[in-house]
Amino acid sequence: MLAKRIIPCLDVDHGRVKKGVNFVNLQDVGDPTEIAAAYQKQGADELVFLDITATNEKRKAIVETIEQVASQVFMPLTVGGGIHSVDDMQQLLKAGADKTAVNSAAVSNPRLITEGAEKFGAQCVVLAIDAKWNPDSQQYDVYVNGGRKRTNLDAIKWAQRGVALGAGELLVTSMDKDGTKSGYDIELYKQLTKAVNVPVIASGGCGKLADFVEVFDQADVDGALAASVFHFGELTISDVKNDLRKDGVIVR
Amino acid sequence: MMIIIDYDTGNTRNVKNALDFLGVENRLSADPAEILNADGLILPGVGAFKKAMDSLNERGLVPVIKQAANAGIPMLGICLGMQILFDKSYEFGESTGLGLIAGEVVPIPDNLGVKVPHMGWNQNRSQQADPLADEFNNQFSYFVHSYYVKTAPENILSAVNYGIQIPSIVRKDNVIGFQFHPEKSGEVGLNGLSKFKEMVENADYSRN
Fold first, then answer.
1. Which residue in A246, B117, B177, B191 has the fewest CB atoms around it within 10 Å?
2. Domains and CATH numbers, chain B
3. What interface predicted TM-score (ipTM) does this complex get?
């Protein structure tokens, strides 16, 4: 059966990997190809590149970054950030990406999901959702524009609609947990994995080994994404996999 | 020279990247003379069966690939490139494949309690002793597909469990297929491509 995926996320700004905590305070951490190759060696199952400047910048830089990474690193590559059209998707897939993640643009133009899925296949279209718990309405709100703007969408319903439109996978970040290192948002992923029948990747909040075990044990997610714990060497992918293996989770 | 058959399909560039990375001399080509003179052939493929066959037909490559296979040139089909090695597929109606290995391509049933497409890392189990299958035995490789191949056990070198047994490596003489993407399967995938290169170098065939 399929192995659960451990997925480092690389935030890329002008061809350099950065990680912002709570979407701010950028800190330069390195060259995307070198970091990607190191993760391949550690046993990462997939890499997510988030072009954090894409919304206001040209796309050329990220396309070049993906071309370079894809010439040295041989595992599935997902790219997100500022993808607004089928042409944007095509450029990235041609550069060597396997999947493209759409977020804000899919909220304003849901047809983008369908057009991408029809042209490249559902497996190439990942719907990325930034979700935040709303204690007043008792639901998860969808945020866009890098977490800066709240929408009226309910994250669980939006996830279901995205899958119906053609999304082949969901990459869902808990804004409540992101940057806190207090563990994944188990309740969010429980609800999501019950609501849809496509792979769900959990993102946001990972700080220690036990967080991975918890999210795979308690919510039926297919992968777990993390950034800073890996970038700064607090954990290695093999640490995480050894720990999961001990717990009986199937990993590569 | 390893020739990657160029027929306007998706994963060609990543296959070329992997061969370049391994230092395997290779070229993309749709030229019949180059294909028939190749030391080894790679048939990539992503997308739909019928579209891939139409694309090969438009380029007049179907008889060329058959001739190359019959001449004993080692040939590796990857993902959809493996599926079109077989007789026919039921994807979007029935369509005819290259017929180099007996068998057909059918949908992964949707009542197995597994998600379709079969997308992710799955563990290969050798079904027969073979240098290529040995390279992948108990190792995970990366799959993305919604259809799978039904063929006689003698053609199946390796399989993965996904509610049903899905053939992951097939072989009939010099014609080989990987259902997974070696170019996306990390070190294990690269090792498999190296093994194919070794096979090409040691191939004992005559060109008539």
1. A246
2. 2-201 (3.40.50.880)
3. 0.92
